[in-house]
Amino acid sequence: MHTSYLACDLGAEHGRISLGTLDKGRLNISTLRRFTTPSTRDGDSVQWNIPALFEQVTDSLTEVARSQETVNGVSCSSWGEDYLLFDSDGALITPVGSPPAKLMAKSMDQLLAKLSLQTIYEETGVQPTPYSTLVQVIAEKSRRLSKAGKLLPIADGFNYLLSGEARVEASSASSTQLYSPTHKAWSARLLYETGLPAKIFPQVVPGGTVLGPLRQDLAEATGIEDVDVVTSCSNEMAATLAGIPVEPGVSWAFLQMGTHSVIGTELLQPLLTDTALKAGFTNDAGYGGTIRFWKPTVGFWILQECRRDWALRGEDLDLEMMMHLAGVAEPFECLINPTAPTFLTPGDMPQKIKSFCRDSGQPIPRKPGAIIRCVLESIALYYRKAMQEMETVTGQRLDRLYLLAGTGGAKHPLLNNFIANALQVPVILCPQETIAAGNILVQAIGLKHIESLEAGRKLVGEVLRYETVQPYAGVWDNAFRKLERLTQ
Question: Against a cut of 0.85, is the pTM above it?
Answer without folding.
Answer: yes
